[in-house]
Amino acid sequence: MVSDKNVEIGAQLDSEFEQVLTEIVVGRRGLEDVELAVDQWLENGGQDIIDEMNELYEDYQAIRQ
To answer: Whose CB has fewer CB within 10 Å in the chain, the N or C terminal residue?
Structure first.
């Protein structure tokens, strides 16, 4: 299963998320910013990717039955 939305914006979302996590690891940000990173990922298109993948999975499951 391939999410078109993930192909379109997934790399950028992951890069932004990893940047925040890197800043946390090196001490430039606090651990509480993990939640901020997750919220940003979801708001910037991550939730669309999740929704699309769930729909693809449901369609796949329906075909298998």
So the answer is: C
